[in-house]
Input
Amino acid sequence: MDSGSFSVRRISWKEASLVSICDSELLGKTVKDGKLSMHISREYFGGELVDGEQVLHLMRNSSIVSLAGSKAVRLALESKLAAKEAIRVVGDVPFLMIYKFFY
Output
């Protein structure tokens, strides 16, 4: 498992939990693909720095997971939490959203 450093921001709302995770070195950067521009902002992804073990726990236990960066996305794919077809690459940075529906 990749034990790199990730920036994590957690939000709880009603009965849902949202976690935004990015490879820490991407925080504050803007990536572009044609007319599309994505800013990996401190407001959205900024928070505590955690390792891969903690990130995997958060991915498994959150209702909504927003990921940016090759390390974060790879961790989700290797853990079978998402399919590679769901990845959107902007510039050279992969982005992925995971939604879990509970009844």
Q: What stands out?
A: The chain is about 20% helix and 40% strand. The mean pLDDT is 91. Residues 6-99 form a domain with the uncharacterized conserved protein from methanopyrus kandleri fold like fold (CATH 3.30.1860.10).
